[in-house]
Amino acid sequence: MSYRTIDRRYVLIIVCSIIIAIASTYIHHPSTPVLLGNWGFKYSDIVHGVFLDRFSPDLINKKDELEQKWYNPELYLALVNGTKSCPIPYIDYRFEYPPIVGILWGVSTCIAIQLVFPQHYTEYDYSTYIEKAAEVHFIIQSVFLGTALVFTAIYMYRFAVLLRLSHWRVIIFLLLPSTLLYTVYNWDIITVALILIAIYYFFKEKYLYSGLLLGLAISTKLLPLVLALVLSYEVIQRILRKKLVSNTALKFFLSLIITAGLPFVVLGFLSYKGLLDMFQHHAEWYCENCLYLLLNPDPWSPLHRILAMIIGGSTVMLTLIIPLKNLQNILRSSFLAMLISTLFNYVFTPQMILLISPLAILALDTKLLDIYILSDIANFGIIATFFKDLEIRRILGSFLGVEVKYSPWTIDSPVQWLAMIRNITLLIIWIYVLSISLKTLSSQLDENTYIASTEVKVYGKSENHDIHKGS
């Protein structure tokens, strides 16, 4: 493979990733037409989930809701009434995402407000200006997220070259429906970019950089904690096998702890309540599209969180015993680890599939890849049907007996049927990949046992020969 060929493929992958990022930005941009008249394609956490929720002009008439969402409601009221400012997440108002996202959020919201709002305005102008600010904020966030998608594609290609896989695998990832829809939607693409680069440096045995980036991934979204546990366990095993010196390992652990922990510590000092509310928000969340709805149909039952802890903990132990001797094993175990964080979690929002798609594309064989694409299409359907739940129920109600109501969170909803198709196909893939990994481990153990026993026999014969010779 020539340098020129590799260069062309890099260009193709980078161009495709930029196109997908722009398309995702266009779909979710607040002022573009609603695709197919379906609000599910327009909605994003960046704008509708948080920004327009925290800065809504309606809060001025809802005192209880204002005090629930804002720690400093006076600042909100001043902003509405003509005093331009830069409200800070966690400190001035509730913000449910980890610190790295909080930093990016603070930058984009402050820039947007400062650029859009004039020095003098009235309460009646606030609605117009905050909607324009939402657009500027969204564009800034889309640059962050689009850049992350480009880095994700680049490092996927680097892995593909190392594994001698076709570069078309990277293109497949970029063309997946969920990649298009969820890239500029939430911050999962930043997390997976950091994960891929961390795994790349781990394979290259550059443990300092690997730890730093993996810690940043955790500070962006908590779910890579399971992957951090898997890689940390492997580092410990390499120390015990004397394949890694303790000083090098210490760099990995220190860098991981600093970048994963320090942002939360700093946040705790700045706003203990903001940090506590962030954790509480996630700890009390309902079973969103989770596998355990098949066992308990009540999405608000605490049983789902208990099941997630028990099953998640058990599956982590299974993943830990797989040795990471080569890149294929590293990617397989990383894929299994991120599936534990998502599939076996009590929250599996549709955008979270971005945390596993790049690893799936690299780690799975062709047969499993087809099944994975099916799960991605079903995942795309979750948000595509979410706001259409009532309409779909009306169509199905006449011949399937589905209750006609708007309830996309419950198991009787077509939305959750799609979520279960996704979950069950991913469960099948997880079991299959785990069984392959464990069979590989078993064969390696048998081979090592055979070699060891052969060496003992050879040594024993040699020793007897020497004894007879000596007599």
Sequence-ordered SSE layout with sheet pairings:
Layout: H1 3-28, H2 39-42, H3 45-54, H4 63-69, H5 73-80, H6 99-116, H7 126-163, H8 168-175, H9 177-182, H10 188-203, H11 207-220, H12 225-240, H13 246-270, H14 272-283, H15 303-320, H16 327-342, H17 357-363, H18 366-386, H19 389-400, H20 414-470
Helix pairs in contact: 1-7, 1-8, 3-7, 6-7, 7-8, 7-10, 8-17, 10-11, 11-13, 12-13, 12-16, 13-14, 15-16, 16-17, 16-20, 18-20
Explain what you see.
By secondary structure, this protein is mainly α. It has a domain at 3-140. The protein has helices at 3-28, 39-42, 45-54, 63-69, 73-80, 99-116, 126-163, 168-175, 177-182, 188-203, 207-220, 225-240, 246-270, 272-283, 303-320, 327-342, 357-363, 366-386, 389-400, 414-470. The model is unreliable at 450-471 (pLDDT under 50).
Keywords:
471 residues, 0% strand, single chain
Q: In summary, what is this structure?
A:
The chain is mainly alpha-helical and 471 residues long.
Helix content percent band: over 70%
For the secondary structure, the number of strands is 0
| Number of helices, where a helix is a run of at least 4 consecutive DSSP H or I residues | 20
Strand content: under 5%
Computed Rg = 26 Å
Average predicted confidence as pLDDT? 92
Estimate the global geometry from the Cα principal axes.
Answer: globular
End-to-end separation in angstroms reads 64 Å
How would a textbook summarize the main sheet? none
Computed structural class? mainly alpha
